[in-house]
Design brief:
By secondary structure, this protein is an alpha/beta fold. It is built from 7 helices and 4 strands. A 4-stranded parallel β-sheet has the order 1-2-3-4, sandwiched between helices. It is globular.
């Protein structure tokens, strides 16, 4: 999709040099993974809300007994049998100096995707010297609406990184 946008975007009134990615939960995971795979040359900025970032850790420590976890569903089977695939699909394992800037937003009381998932990704991004910020929203669990101030912060984040183009 990104490659298509870069080739065809201008025909549809889009600037193919200003592509960002954003998503919530599983969509946040995909946005983060897309940013890592494509790099900042293609994806200028990523905003991920409560994203799974380390599927191995999430799948081995946060599942419910006798119930197939969402990570197992994604991988097509038990995580212990798909560790290599889980590692490959984990944004945290793909961080590099060429990763795009990140804005992470996570609820402090998230019981589905623990806050530690965003904290760990933030740490790795900072170690790679990638511009990154984490907003922890007090009292929020998984799946929450951004308030006006948070939505304005997201808009400012993308505007800032889109304006930084040569």
């Amino acid at each position: 999709a990104v490659r298509w946008l870069r080739v065809n975007g201008s025909r549809h009134g889009l600037d193919p040099q200003r592509i960002g990615a954003s998503g919530e939960s599983a969509g946040g995971h995909l946005a983060a993974l897309l940013g890592m795979v494509e790099g900042k040359a293609s994806i200028r900025a990523v905003c991920a809300l409560y994203p799974p970032t380390d599927l191995i850790k999430l799948g081995t420590t946060h599942g419910k007994p006798r119930q197939k976890s969402s990570v197992e569903k994604l991988l097509g089977g038990p995580i212990q049998q798909r560790l290599a695939l889980a590692a490959e699909a984990s944004p945290i394992n793909r961080v590099s100096a060429s990763s795009p800037p990140f804005l992470l937003i996570h609820g402090a009381n998230d019981g589905i995707v623990p806050l530690e998932q965003s904290q760990a990704l933030l740490y790795e991004l900072e170690q790679a010297k990638v511009a990154a910020r984490l907003i922890v929203v007090p009292g929020k669990r998984h799946w929450f609406r951004l308030d006006k101030q948070q939505a304005a912060e997201v808009a400012r984040f993308f505007q800032t990184h889109f304006e930084m183009l040569p």
